[in-house]
Amino acid sequence: MPAVASSLSARVRRNEALSEIRTGEILTAATRVFGRKGYEATRAEDIAAAAGIAKGTLYLYFDSKEAIYSATVSRACRELRAELERHTAQVTGFQEKLRTALQVRLEYWTENQSIYRLLLTVGREQKHRRQTADFLRAAQRDYKTLLQDGVDAGEFACDDLEQLAWATLDLVRGASERRIDKLGESDPRQDALRITAFVLAQNTRRPSSRKR
Amino acid sequence: MPAVASSLSARVRRNEALSEIRTGEILTAATRVFGRKGYEATRAEDIAAAAGIAKGTLYLYFDSKEAIYSATVSRACRELRAELERHTAQVTGFQEKLRTALQVRLEYWTENQSIYRLLLTVGREQKHRRQTADFLRAAQRDYKTLLQDGVDAGEFACDDLEQLAWATLDLVRGASERRIDKLGESDPRQDALRITAFVLAQNTRRPSSRKR
Amino acid sequence: MPAVASSLSARVRRNEALSEIRTGEILTAATRVFGRKGYEATRAEDIAAAAGIAKGTLYLYFDSKEAIYSATVSRACRELRAELERHTAQVTGFQEKLRTALQVRLEYWTENQSIYRLLLTVGREQKHRRQTADFLRAAQRDYKTLLQDGVDAGEFACDDLEQLAWATLDLVRGASERRIDKLGESDPRQDALRITAFVLAQNTRRPSSRKR
Amino acid sequence: MPAVASSLSARVRRNEALSEIRTGEILTAATRVFGRKGYEATRAEDIAAAAGIAKGTLYLYFDSKEAIYSATVSRACRELRAELERHTAQVTGFQEKLRTALQVRLEYWTENQSIYRLLLTVGREQKHRRQTADFLRAAQRDYKTLLQDGVDAGEFACDDLEQLAWATLDLVRGASERRIDKLGESDPRQDALRITAFVLAQNTRRPSSRKR
DNA sequence: TATGAATGAGTTTTCATTCAT
DNA sequence: AATGAATGAAAACTCATTCAT
């Protein structure tokens, strides 16, 4: 009976879709709560409440609080990456590309402070450290690639791109944290300009070459 | 009977000294454990075990786990400050002063990774955030003062010392964390030189002025 | 879909009823255990065990051991009051009313020795003293009202009803305690008669007035 | 060497005397503290502090907190008994003897509220109950003996001295507690008169006999 | 599938008792 | 004998996880 089989599989597909939606809702709630309270101080029930479901339901979608945390971090990383790619795709020119990459990340953190905290503050406890380290390394690699493109295009020179990429990341983190902790009053755009200037100041390429 | 009185007060003094030593031992143990596991994940008993005493003994010296944490942070701050003052006192010259300040801090963190974690990673959980923010602001102020001295001495110029001081702190934090997380292989000395170069590259004072 | 709505509210109602039952079971268990061991010597787990539930379950229904104690006392007071009202409603005549009030209370304590201990023995510890004092004052007021009714009806006279009411309460307490402590062998009925006689012996109204 | 032996035994005797004094100081302190806070809420250290000695010293004189409590109660009983005998010895006449006995006890409780609480409030927890019961029975026996003396002297009659003695005790307890709990404002003397009147009102001996 | 009541292991803290000085 | 620092068993309370409905 193909009809039945097909109807079954349709139902299965539909259920899978629903399940994915529910999973997403839980992760969104978890991001908010973990970001606000930290991993240990967050109770499973807090996440459930924030997601508008019952405590027990969490365990239909995840094995443990730990698993929810892991999935939350993974999704946040994927999301940020997508956001970055979406915005930097159409931009051209080294300097502009750099500024845009910085600004997008700074804006992303400004709008998603929970995710920032989740990745870079909460996640610093012993058992989540590797996940965070991986995330940082990926960000640094991005900046390094960007700088390398500048070098390849003859618009930039620096004898230690590796370190400059890390430094760039450090400045982004610092600016983001100060905004979150309300320790300054600049906006993401200003910060991006400042950090761009800072990076460009490390250019060892003789400016004279620009003359004709 | 002065002999008795003096012997009594001698005993009292000795006990007070022992008590201070014990307090210090607990704080040292607490720094290690909090630094490794974070505040929430650290059990009072872990600290006791690390200090080689029984659980109950902790409470002879501190009122609560929270109080132990607070005291641990305070002591770490005092210690770092003393270290900084001890090393920078004899150095002269803006550039050399900057490099020394950076190197001392980088070395201190390298040798006291637990304290770094305690102050800048662990302490970022909700209820300890203010303590950490205060600590960061103090560090930034130090760098700003140092830069201002350079400006006053006519050796440096920059239109936003505030932001440059923050940036310097960001770079120190980044370098320290990477060493702790084993994400690079530079040593504190190299890092200090690199960060000094970064900062000096922001100098807007015309080098030509030095001629003549 | 009214069916669903009604079924939902039915479930809610059912759960609330179950919750009330559970609360009652805990209070019953608590009365027994507090009465036997006293407040301090009773561990939360004892109450849970007596109620046939787990330690943690207590805290789904009450905020603290202290709260359980308070609720236990309140319920006991309400219960005794209801019992008294139920039995004395239909009785008429001063002497008969007095005897009935005494007997009901004596029987209640005989059948609810835990509650007696809870209210009048356990509750005498420092921090629960006020609750007990209030309870005693209420009982004394009841007896005073009863005696005043006798005076108003011209069947009794006494120049200090206040003190006589307290004395009546003292005798009831004494008789109850001796029964609980097995220090005598009278039954509540005999005790009630005896105390009634005792009180009536304080009558200062000339019996001669009854003549004619 | 008898001299040595005698000097040794003298020292032993002296030490025993000192030890007894110290024991007494501890019991005095313990009475105060137990009476104020109850058995469970009293910490060994509270007693030591009240006695002006160190915590550990308690255990040179007593085996446990429990033992201190027991000894405290025993001593209080002995003390009260001595007080009663001292005051009632010289009084003659049934009515006067009764009044004196009551007044002495009421005054004793007024001046020694801690001991009252210790014996009749604190001591009502499970494990101390027998001690309290014994104490109450002894008091009742005293009153019964006193009343029997009145009967033997032809000054009083009552068909149930046993119960009347208990009732007397109940009234004394009630009056004492109200004074301690500040629930009334009579003084011991008034209370003694009132209770005496109460008791005498139970006299079944024909008053006509008093006529000549 | 969803629920939320129930569980009990695990956490902080207290305090009677011990014991080295 | 006296001390008081140290101990660790025990208590109140929390919360991740399970499971009957």
TrEMBL record, chains A, B, C, D:
<dbReference type="Pfam" id="PF17932">
    <property type="entry name" value="TetR_C_24"/>
</dbReference>
<dbReference type="InterPro" id="IPR041490">
    <property type="entry name" value="KstR2_TetR_C"/>
</dbReference>
<dbReference type="InterPro" id="IPR001647">
    <property type="entry name" value="HTH_TetR"/>
</dbReference>
<protein>
    <submittedName>
        <fullName>TetR/AcrR family transcriptional regulator</fullName>
    </submittedName>
</protein>
<dbReference type="InterPro" id="IPR036271">
    <property type="entry name" value="Tet_transcr_reg_TetR-rel_C_sf"/>
</dbReference>
<keyword id="KW-0805">Transcription regulation</keyword>
<dbReference type="InterPro" id="IPR050109">
    <property type="entry name" value="HTH-type_TetR-like_transc_reg"/>
</dbReference>
<feature type="DNA-binding region" description="H-T-H motif">
    <location>
        <begin position="43"/>
        <end position="62"/>
    </location>
</feature>
<dbReference type="Pfam" id="PF00440">
    <property type="entry name" value="TetR_N"/>
</dbReference>
<feature type="domain" description="HTH tetR-type">
    <location>
        <begin position="20"/>
        <end position="80"/>
    </location>
</feature>
<dbReference type="InterPro" id="IPR009057">
    <property type="entry name" value="Homeodomain-like_sf"/>
</dbReference>
<keyword id="KW-0238">DNA-binding</keyword>
<keyword id="KW-0804">Transcription</keyword>
